[in-house]
Write a structure and sequence with these properties.
The chain has a domain of 99 residues: Histidine kinase-like ATPase, C-terminal domain (Heat Shock Protein 90, 2-Layer Sandwich), CATH 3.30.565. It contains five helices and five strands, in the order αβαββαββαα. The radius of gyration is 18 Å and the shape is globular. By secondary structure, it is an alpha+beta fold. The strands form two sheets. Strands 2-4-5 form a three-stranded mixed sheet. A two-stranded antiparallel ribbon has the order 1-3. The termini are far apart.
């Protein structure tokens, strides 16, 4: 009989491989067809609250803390809920993956308004920050490119697709 711990390790390994394969397929589809967005009105604060609740067990495993500073004052935005969720999820996962335990993540948003000729424009800038090891300025330029990984990433699995997908979305 195979020990339970061994089966669980195999299951986690299969999940990681499946995630890598799915990321490769998504990247190819993104390059060929783009991403069809289904934008609808949504409350950013609600999306991030739901994400924080779902990620709570994984944050606890890493002794990490996620602070949601997005208030209900941020107006309803037009966005694709699923794709925006994926971007946040990818950034949170990256922060946990590439930092020591105890990292603190902060999710915030800022409303920016500008007055143009006969029009008023507004957008919401979403910010994700952490207290982790940080990045060198030259790394920031390349990390969002296809198949790019940070120098410390050799110790982790992945293909360098996560931040690229975030940028494309």
């Amino acid at each position: 009989m195979v020990p339970q711990a061994y089966l669980e390790r195999m299951d986690r390994s299969c999940d990681r491989q499946l995630n890598l394969i799915n990321s490769l397929v998504e990247t190819q589809q993104l390059e060929v067809w783009g991403v069809p967005l289904q934008c609808r009105p949504l409350h950013l604060s609600q999306l991030v609250s739901e994400l924080a609740a779902e990620w709570e067990p994984r944050l606890a495993q890493h002794e990490a803390r996620l602070e949601n500073l997005i208030t209900h004052d941020i107006p309803v935005i037009e966005a694709d809920y699923h794709q925006l969720w994926r971007v946040y999820e990818n950034l949170v996962a990256n922060a946990l993956k590439h930092n020591p335990t105890g990292v603190q993540l902060t999710l915030s948003a800022e409303l920016h308004e500008s007055q143009g000729h006969n029009s008023r424009m507004a957008f919401v800038r979403c910010l994700v920050a952490d207290t982790g090891v940080g990045l060198e300025p030259e790394q920031i330029e390349t990390l969002f490119q296809l198949y790019q990984r940070g120098s410390a990433a050799r110790k982790t699995t992945g293909l360098g697709l996560g931040l690229y997908l975030c940028r494309k979305l």
